[in-house]
C-alpha cells in the first residue's frame, strides 16, 4: 500500500510538470478508450448490478447502474473537464522585492489525492478527469458493490494513459475496505482526502486522519422568514429549498420564522409544503398556529435528508442568527426579508460558507456558481470553503529569482530598503 | 476553559462586524495604554527576569527581557498593524448567476485563534494586534517564564479595550501549561492554532489537535550549486544562507553540489564558511575534496539551527531534486545556476513553499515578501503556504442575493441557463 502511494507520488511529480495540452491529450485518450470499450464496461457493470440485486436499496442500485446513457454522459464529462481553464501556472502575486529580485506566486498541483466514493462508477470517471486536469495523482476507492466496474474502468484508463505523456501509475485503485484505514495514515504521501458518502463516513474520515479533508459531514441548512418578508418570495423559496431535492446537503432542515409574521405565513407555507408531501415538526408556538408534530431539541441538530422540516418561531433576527450559529453546520443559510439592514446583519453575522438573501439554499453548488466542476462542498472555516471547483485541487509555491542576492544586504546597520513594487 | 472559549467566540462575533476604523481605534487605545503603563510593564518584566535568572539560557533570557526600547518597538508595531490594509470585506469573486441573482465572495475573520508562543512578551503585543486587525478573537498562552509580564499586558489591554467598541473578552490569556491540552481539544470553539517554539513542540501540537495548525515543525532548507553556477554568486549566497542568522528556519542545513563543479567550488566555499565559524560535514566524495567531518544519513534529516552545514555531492540536477524532495521539509530550497532550463526544472519540480534561483533562502519571510506582517511560515501543502501575512487569519464566505429565486427554475425539463457573467 505504501509502495502504491510512493508510485503514485512519483507519477504525480511527472504529471505535475506536463503542459495543459499534454494533460488534455491524456483526457481525450481516456474518453476515446472508454468509448471504444463501452461493451466491456457495461458488461462489468451488469455483473455488479446482478450481484447486488436485492441486497442494496433501490436508490443505491440506481447509482450503481451505469448504462449506456450515463456512460455517454460521463465520457462527455471527461471532454468538458479538458475544456476547463488550466488551473496550473496561474500567477497570483508578481512583485519586485528589489531591482532584479522578483517574487512570483504560482499555482501548482497538490500532489496526490485520496478519493473515497460511493458505488457510483461515473464518479470514478469524473474524479480521474479532475485529478489529471489539475496535475494530481489520485488513489481511488469506490464502494465495494461497484468493484467489477471500477476495476474495468481503471484497466481501460491505464491502457489509455500508457499511450500518452501521463504515467498510468498516477491513477490507482484500491479494492478492499481495509485499505481505507491505511490510506488515511499515509500523510507522507497523500496530500488531500476527499471522502464522499454518508455523514457518518465523512465524520469517521475527518476523525481518523492527519491529512487535510475536503468535504463536509452535516448539511444542516436554515431559512429564516423575517418579519418583513415578502410572502410571494418566502413561500416558493421555502418549498424549493426543502423539496427540490430533499436528499441534497443544501436542502433546508429547519425553518425559522419571526413571531410577528408566523400567524400569517405558517398556514400558507404549511399548505404549500403539505401539497409536496412534506411532514412538519414544530416547536410549541408553531403547534399553536398549525397542525404538526412536536419538534424536540434533537430536531434542531438533525439532517433529515428527507421530506421532513422542523419549524421554530424566533422573537427577532438575532434569535434566528443565534439559533443558526448554534445548531447549523456552517453550510448554507438564508434569510427572506425586504429589510436591507436585516439582510446585511444576517449575511454578516451568520457563520456559514453560504449566506443567502431572498433565494433558495439549493443554489449552493459548484456548477451553479459557475465553477465548471465541483470537487466538494467544504464546511470548514479555512479556505477552500463552500463549493469547491478545480482550484480546490491546487496549491501554490513562491518562486523567487535573483542575481546572487543575499539577505545581509537588507539587514544590519545600513540596510537597503526593499522596493516591494507589484509588477 | 470551555467557558473562556465560548466567551471569546461571542466577543469575536461582535468584533467580526466592526469597521476597520473601530478596529484601528482599539489598536490605538492599546498602544496608548501600553505607553501610559510602561513602568508597570517593565516592573512586571523585571520580576520575571529575576525569577528566571540562571534558570534559563542566555538566549531565552534575551527574549524574555522586554526593556524600554523593545517595548517602544512593540508599541510602534501596534500602530503599524493599524496602518495595514483592512484584510476584511475584500471581494474576490463578483458574479451574476442570472439577472438579479448576484454572488459575492467576501473575506471575513476566521473566528477564534489559539496562539501558543515562547516567553517573549513582545510577541503577545504583536499577536493581539494582528488578531484585532483581522477581526478575530484570540486565546493566548505564553511561555511560563513571562507569566507576570503577560498577565500585566493583558490586564492593560483589557482596560484599554473596555473604552472601545471591541469587547475585552476577545483577548484571553491562559496561564498554565495544562490548559494547552484543553485548548487543542476545543475544535468547536477555536478555528486556527498558531504554535511557536521548538520543532518538537510544533510537532506535538500538529499531532494532538483536529484544529487546523498554521506553522511548521522543521525548516530543512537546501541550496544546490549546479554545474553551471557562477561562483561569484554561489559563494556569497551559500555564506548568507547559512550564516546570516543560523537559528532561523530559512537558513540552509544541507548544501548539494554538482559533481562537475565540486572540485573547484568546495575548497573556496569551505574557506569562506570556515572564516564565519561554520563546521562542515560531508559525504565521502566531499571528504575526498575538502577536510571535514563525515556526514551520516541522519545529517540529511537534521535541522542544525546552528553554524553546521552538511554537504553532499550529486551527479546531476535530478539527483539534487530527488534529495530535496526526499529529505526536505517543503520550506525553502534554492538553486545557483546560469542555466535557465535547469533553473526552471528545479523551480517546477522541487516541492516546497519557496523555490529560489540565484538568491539566498533567507528571503523566505513575510516582511521581506512585503506582507507587512507575518503570522507564520506554513510548510503544509494546502494554502496558506509559505510565509503568511494577515490574509492567513481570514477566510471568506459566499453571499448570494436574489429576488425570490428558486433552483427549480434552472433544473428539470426546460431549465433556464445561468448567465455566469462576472461583474
From TrEMBL, chains A, B:
<dbReference type="GO" id="GO:0055129">
    <property type="term" value="P:L-proline biosynthetic process"/>
</dbReference>
<dbReference type="GO" id="GO:0005737">
    <property type="term" value="C:cytoplasm"/>
</dbReference>
<keyword id="KW-0560">Oxidoreductase</keyword>
<dbReference type="InterPro" id="IPR015590">
    <property type="entry name" value="Aldehyde_DH_dom"/>
</dbReference>
<comment type="function">
    <text>Catalyzes the NADPH-dependent reduction of L-glutamate 5-phosphate into L-glutamate 5-semialdehyde and phosphate. The product spontaneously undergoes cyclization to form 1-pyrroline-5-carboxylate.</text>
</comment>
<comment type="similarity">
    <text>Belongs to the gamma-glutamyl phosphate reductase family.</text>
</comment>
<dbReference type="InterPro" id="IPR000965">
    <property type="entry name" value="GPR_dom"/>
</dbReference>
<dbReference type="InterPro" id="IPR016161">
    <property type="entry name" value="Ald_DH/histidinol_DH"/>
</dbReference>
<dbReference type="Pfam" id="PF00171">
    <property type="entry name" value="Aldedh"/>
</dbReference>
<protein>
    <recommendedName>
        <fullName>Gamma-glutamyl phosphate reductase</fullName>
        <ecNumber>1.2.1.41</ecNumber>
    </recommendedName>
</protein>
<keyword id="KW-0521">NADP</keyword>
<dbReference type="InterPro" id="IPR016163">
    <property type="entry name" value="Ald_DH_C"/>
</dbReference>
<comment type="pathway">
    <text>Amino-acid biosynthesis; L-proline biosynthesis; L-glutamate 5-semialdehyde from L-glutamate: step 2/2.</text>
</comment>
<dbReference type="InterPro" id="IPR020593">
    <property type="entry name" value="G-glutamylP_reductase_CS"/>
</dbReference>
<dbReference type="GO" id="GO:0050661">
    <property type="term" value="F:NADP binding"/>
</dbReference>
<keyword id="KW-0963">Cytoplasm</keyword>
<keyword id="KW-0028">Amino-acid biosynthesis</keyword>
<feature type="domain" description="Aldehyde dehydrogenase">
    <location>
        <begin position="3"/>
        <end position="278"/>
    </location>
</feature>
<dbReference type="InterPro" id="IPR012134">
    <property type="entry name" value="Glu-5-SA_DH"/>
</dbReference>
<keyword id="KW-0641">Proline biosynthesis</keyword>
<dbReference type="InterPro" id="IPR016162">
    <property type="entry name" value="Ald_DH_N"/>
</dbReference>
<dbReference type="GO" id="GO:0004350">
    <property type="term" value="F:glutamate-5-semialdehyde dehydrogenase activity"/>
</dbReference>
Amino acid at each position: 500500500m505504501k509502495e502504491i502511494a510512493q508510485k503514485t507520488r512519483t507519477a504525480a511529480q511527472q504529471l505535475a510538470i506536463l503542459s495543459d495540452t499534454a494533460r488534455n491529450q491524456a483526457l481525450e485518450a481516456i474518453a476515446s478508450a472508454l468509448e471504444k470499450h463501452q461493451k466491456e464496461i457495461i458488461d462489468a457493470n451488469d455483473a455488479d448490478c446482478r450481484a447486488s440485486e436485492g441486497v442494496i436499496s433501490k436508490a443505491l442500485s440506481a447509482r450503481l447502474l451505469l448504462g449506456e446513457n450515463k456512460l455517454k454522459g460521463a465520457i462527455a464529462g471527461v471532454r468538458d473537464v479538458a475544456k476547463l481553464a488550466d488551473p496550473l501556472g496561474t500567477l497570483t502575486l508578481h512583485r519586485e522585492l528589489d531591482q532584479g529580485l522578483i517574487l512570483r506566486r504560482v499555482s501548482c498541483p497538490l500532489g496526490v489525492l485520496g478519493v473515497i466514493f460511493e458505488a457510483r462508477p461515473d464518479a470514478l470517471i469524473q474524479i480521474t478527469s479532475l485529478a489529471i486536469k489539475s496535475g494530481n495523482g489520485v488513489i481511488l476507492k469506490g464502494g465495494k458493490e461497484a468493484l467489477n466496474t471500477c476495476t474495468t474502468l481503471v484497466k481501460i484508463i491505464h491502457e489509455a494513459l500508457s499511450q500518452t505523456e501521463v504515467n498510468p501509475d498516477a491513477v490507482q485503485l484500491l479494492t478492499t475496505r481495509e485499505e481505507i484505514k491505511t490510506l488515511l495514515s499515509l500523510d507522507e504521501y497523500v496530500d488531500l482526502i476527499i471522502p464522499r458518502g454518508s455523514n457518518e463516513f465523512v465524520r469517521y474520515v475527518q476523525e481518523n486522519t492527519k491529512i487535510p479533508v475536503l468535504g463536509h459531514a452535516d448539511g444542516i441548512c436554515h431559512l429564516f422568514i423575517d418579519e418583513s418578508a415578502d410572502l410571494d418570495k418566502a413561500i416558493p423559496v421555502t418549498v424549493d429549498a426543502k423539496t427540490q431535492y430533499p436528499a441534497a446537503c443544501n436542502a433546508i432542515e429547519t425553518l425559522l420564522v419571526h413571531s410577528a409574521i408566523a400567524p400569517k405565513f405558517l398556514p400558507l407555507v404549511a399548505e404549500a409544503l403539505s401539497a409536496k408531501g412534506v411532514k412538519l415538526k414544530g416547536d410549541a408556538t408553531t403547534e399553536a398556529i398549525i397542525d404538526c408534530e412536536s419538534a424536540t431539541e434533537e430536531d434542531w441538530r438533525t439532517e433529515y435528508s428527507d421530506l421532513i422540516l422542523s419549524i421554530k418561531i424566533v422573537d427577532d433576527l438575532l434569535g434566528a442568527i443565534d439559533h443558526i450559529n448554534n445548531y447549523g453546520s456552517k453550510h448554507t443559510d438564508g434569510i427572506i426579508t425586504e429589510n436591507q439592514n436585516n439582510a446585511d446583519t444576517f449575511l454578516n453575522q451568520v457563520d456559514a460558507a453560504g449566506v443567502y438573501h431572498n433565494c433558495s439554499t439549493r443554489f449552493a453548488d459548484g456548477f451553479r456558481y459557475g465553477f465548471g466542476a465541483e470537487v466538494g462542498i467544504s464546511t470548514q472555516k479555512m479556505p477552500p470553503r463552500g463549493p469547491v471547483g478545480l482550484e480546490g485541487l491546487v496549491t501554490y509555491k513562491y518562486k523567487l529569482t535573483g542575481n546572487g542576492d543575499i539577505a545581509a544586504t537588507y539587514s544590519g546597520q545600513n540596510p537597503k530598503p526593499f522596493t516591494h513594487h507589484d509588477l
